[in-house]
Amino acid sequence: MSTEASNEPDKQESLVSHLVELRNRLIKIVIGIVVVLLCLFPFANEIYSFLAEPLLKHLPESSTMVAIDVASPFLTPFKLVMLLAVVLTIPWILYQFWAFIAPGLYKHEKRLVLPLLTSSSILFYLGMVFAYFVVFPLVFGFFTKVTPDGVAVMTDISRYLDFVTKMFIAFGAAFEVPVLTFVLVMTGVTTVEALSRARSYVIVAAFVIGMLLTPPDIISQVLLAIPVWLLFELGLLMSKIVLKRTEVEGRRFRPMTEEEMDLELDEIELLESNQENKTDKT
Length: 282
Fold this sequence. Notes:
This protein is mainly alpha-helical and 282 residues long. It is 79% helix and 0% strand.
């Protein structure tokens, strides 16, 4: 009974220290976003003009973008740089969360998580670049060409920002398919052979996702569905390569046994206790 009572304060101190650490990480995330926001804010109008360029190129000469709300000329570019600040600090945000959870991960989990976080960030950015340089010109060209006669195309700047933000998120998320496929295979949830046999279902699902996440036009739906399918194939290829390499090296991926987990937990606890002792002495 006394042992349980003595362990209770230690658990409370551990919880408080974790909450303090989480608070510090969140503060660093906010500071990083604010710093990037302050750097981008003086160029808010130029950044919005760059974002609107794919639409402006396809507008008729007599048409232009409009601001319906009184505060839109200020609030819309400001909202854009806020969103851009968050997007640009994604690696910093992921690093802070990684630094928070890393002490509690096993060695094999650390080796797997860090490359996945890096590749996820890169693929998300590639999805946004693909949307801007490939999808937007085709979609806006299609929309302006099918405009009925006598109708002037004058898009509101805030609604345009909402539209392209949804498209960026949709394509950024779609480009995460290789990472998802790789994780499913490497964690043993499924196999490369099983996913290969389900290829036809994946292709159908890709077009359904394209229909749900994009505007109701066939161009954007196809432009999202085809990359999802190709990226799924890339994830299968990556999984095959990694599995073959681990087999050649004689260390095929497998979940840790309970004995191995207990041993590593003991090592982590010993390391934490040594660090606490050093802190107390100082």
